[in-house]
């Protein structure tokens, strides 16, 4: 429905109902499946944080930040495991968590709700002596609010990137729940965090602007701040969510999205896990090209390919930059993803490095890619299909099609696959055998485990 002043009473009612539900939620009342999903999201996103430790730009900023110093209360999850203040740890871990583009995401609306909540939660829980119980309660509730905000406001197509828009409120509510705020405290936190939303243009991702990787870190810092300001009476307005997401960001509000069905199911149950280190809009294409490539293992792709036609869904068509200039740009470039996938036989992190951007063979293949709209777009889970057709210089052609990408909730990665992904991705910081043991400990952690001890387990695994 159109966002107008008449929306305000209904919006306030829905946020009140959400806050009441969130305050009443208890670990013991959560279904075993939901808690298992929360642990898998924690594992996946923790791997993303650990995996980005060696990224040059992030490493430089981390060194600059830690050189200034801060109160030693939370750990930066990178080699050396330096402690700093909770705001800095949340920011640095939040930046790392989306850098490789392997973090978990919510599939039914555009949101990466896990990585919005987890860096702030880990920093606060470690600094304040909280347990896995509070951590997982906060994750489930923080994920829920970020996912519901993504449902509640529809922005003009491909205008707003969710990392900046929804990370402050996701982080703030997660922390507030972990700290045991009342319903009124949670409501004030939502209102205040909404006023911190970042105007995050989607084209900064496709354009490869590395500042996009900062939005989750900034959101984690702002979320902790909002949760604390709310307790000190430094508040937004009751209308702040509407003022920001409706008026300022021109979102169209969906009535009922914030409160309908609370507790009947949980948003964290509908997440996807990425097998490939790039924007999920490209994943069906990579599935298709890897199938096609497997049929032609002996082919010298850069020398023998004449043209590559990719038919894909509207969001995939937005990934149209053929010659990305940054690693982020490569992850949001369908021509690069196709070229590197054909050249290297993978959609993993090695396909999106600086070396891959500068590889002459990858560039030649990227220039041969043509993007076209596909006809077979249906309702979820077949709303992001892709077909790839490769024509060789000898005149032969081959085609492969994928209706739903691997990792989607309807085609989930297995538990074993997620553990192996964690081992591979976290390898920048954690040795393989240590990573496997750590994964088992995270997936089986008892509710009374102190988060400080969880961080200690990460350090020992490294």
From TrEMBL:
Residue ranges occupied by any MmgE/PrpD N-terminal domain in the UniProt entry? 18-242
Q: Which SUPFAM superfamilies match?
A: 2-methylcitrate dehydratase PrpD
Q: Which GO terms describe its molecular function?
A: lyase activity
List, alphabetically, the Pfam families matched. Answer: MmgE_PrpD_C, MmgE_PrpD_N
Locate the MmgE/PrpD C-terminal domain: which residues? 276-432
Where on the tree of life does the source sit, at the highest rank? Bacteria
- Family under the similarity heading: Belongs to the PrpD family.
Q: Which residues form the signal peptide?
A: none
Q: Which InterPro entries does this chain map to?
A: MmgE/PrpD_sf, MmgE/PrpD_sf_1, MmgE/PrpD_sf_2, MmgE_PrpD, MmgE_PrpD_C, MmgE_PrpD_N
**Protein name according to UniProt:** MmgE/PrpD family protein
Database matches in Gene3D superfamilies: 2-methylcitrate dehydratase PrpD (3.30.1330.120)
């Amino acid at each position: 429905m159109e966002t107008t002043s008449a929306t305000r009473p209904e919006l306030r009612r829905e946020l009140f109902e959400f806050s009441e539900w969130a305050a009443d939620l208890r670990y013991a009342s959560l279904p075993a499946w939901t808690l298992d999903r929360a642990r898998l999201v924690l594992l996946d996103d923790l791997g993303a944080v650990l995996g980005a430790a060696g990224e040059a730009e992030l490493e430089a900023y981390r060194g600059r930040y830690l050189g200034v110093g801060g109160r030693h209360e939370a750990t930066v999850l990178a080699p050396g495991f330096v402690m700093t203040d909770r705001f800095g740890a949340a920011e640095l871990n939040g930046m790392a968590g989306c850098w490789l583009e392997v973090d978990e995401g919510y599939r039914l609306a555009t949101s990466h709700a896990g990585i919005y909540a987890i860096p702030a939660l880990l920093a606060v829980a470690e600094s304040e002596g909280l347990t896995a119980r509070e951590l997982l309660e906060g994750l489930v509730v923080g994920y829920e609010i970020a996912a519901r905000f993504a449902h509640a406001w529809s922005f003009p197509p491909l205008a707003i990137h969710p990392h900046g828009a929804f990370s402050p409120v996701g982080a703030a509510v997660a922390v507030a729940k972990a700290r045991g705020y009342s319903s009124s405290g949670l409501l004030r936190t939502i209102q205040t965090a909404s006023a911190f939303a970042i105007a995050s243009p989607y084209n900064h991702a496709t354009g490869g602007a590395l500042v996009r990787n900062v939005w989750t870190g900034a959101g984690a810092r702002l979320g902790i701040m909002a949760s604390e300001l709310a307790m000190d009476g430094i508040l937004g307005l009751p209308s702040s969510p509407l003022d920001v997401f409706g008026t300022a960001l021109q979102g169209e509000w969906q009535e009922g999205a914030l409160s309908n069905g609370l507790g009947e199911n949980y948003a964290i149950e509908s997440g996807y896990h990425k097998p490939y280190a790039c924007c999920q809009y490209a994943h069906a294409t990579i599935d298709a090209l890897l199938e096609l490539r497997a049929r032609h293992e002996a082919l010298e792709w850069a020398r023998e390919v004449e043209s590559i036609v990719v038919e894909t869904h509207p969001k995939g068509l937005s990934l149209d930059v053929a010659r990305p200039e940054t690693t982020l740009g490569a992850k949001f470039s369908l021509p690069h993803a196709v070229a590197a996938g054909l050249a290297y036989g993978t959609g993993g992190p090695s396909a999106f490095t600086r070396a891959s951007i500068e590889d002459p063979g990858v560039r030649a293949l990227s220039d041969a890619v043509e993007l076209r709209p596909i006809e077979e777009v249906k309702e979820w889970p077949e709303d992001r299909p892709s077909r790839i057709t490769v024509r060789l210089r000898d005149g032969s052609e081959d085609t492969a099609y994928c209706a739903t990408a691997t990792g989607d909730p309807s085609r989930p990665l297995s538990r074993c696959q997620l553990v192996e992904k964690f081992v591979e991705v976290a390898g920048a910081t954690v040795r393989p055998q240590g990573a496997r043991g750590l994964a088992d400990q995270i997936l089986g952690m008892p509710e009374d485990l102190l988060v400080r001890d969880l961080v200690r387990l990460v350090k020992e695994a490294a």
